[in-house]
Amino acid sequence: MRQRPIGTATRGTTNPNRLRRMDRWIAAAHGPALRRADTPVAVDLGYGAAPWTAVELLARLRTAEPRTAVAGIEIDPERVAAAKPYEREGLTFVHGGFEIPLAVRPTLIRAANVLRQYDEDQVAEVWARLRSRLAPDGLLVEGTCDEIGRRHVWVALGPEGPRTVTFATRLGSLERPSDLAERLPKALIHRNVPGEPVHAFLRDFDRAWAAASPYASLGARQRWIAAVRAVAGDWPVADGVRRWRQGEVTVGWDALRPNSP
């Protein structure tokens, strides 16, 4: 007998194009792994009350690897039933939860806006469960964004554990980098306090942003690039100008890892 799905239903809020920043980053950063996979399968975990994010994930990942298939997994059976009419070649919808009830180990699990309702001390267990379901070259991307996808922060994890944290924003809507703090994933959002590494990073980023104000006359993108270049002198920034131009910056997890309780 099949086990009961593991997890709790989310509010289900979703909007078309909400996860575009995360999707584009995944396609760029994880595209080589998708191309290496014998069977490249991606999971949109907890896609919500409508199937748009899974539909969009398939389209974006297929720009990196046309063989990619996407499985949308939802713990609410009514949401799965509502999504079934959208199935097509390479896109399926499955009833399940953190156990990831697929016959193959996925090359990607994306969990966006899923863990916000969980306690911080539950995150490590969920991460470990999802990582255990990954293919050897797989990636778990877990994070949070606002309702229309202007601000987004996510953690990328391999089977061995967390690797990086990415901050992404629509630059025209940004007053200062620390505005992104409200979208920190559950593992970090309660750690944005003095003495914690993520707080120190956002403080330094705000200072670099202020110092880069002369670049504002050239546009928010140039100011962002100048600010990221400045913080990269003190923090392990893991990407380059090509990604910075998208309103992104990726930092090594070890530098932002929360202090022990």
UniProtKB/TrEMBL annotation:
Superkingdom to which the source organism belongs: Bacteria
Q: Name one GO biological process term.
A: methylation
Q: Which GO terms describe its molecular function?
A: methyltransferase activity
The record, for Gene3D superfamilies, names: Vaccinia Virus protein VP39
Keywords, in A-Z order: Methyltransferase, Transferase
Q: Does the keyword Methyltransferase apply?
A: yes
Q: Known EC number(s)?
A: 2.1.-.-
Top enzyme category: transferase
The residue stretches assigned to a coiled coil in this entry are: none
Protein name per Swiss-Prot or TrEMBL:
Class I SAM-dependent methyltransferase
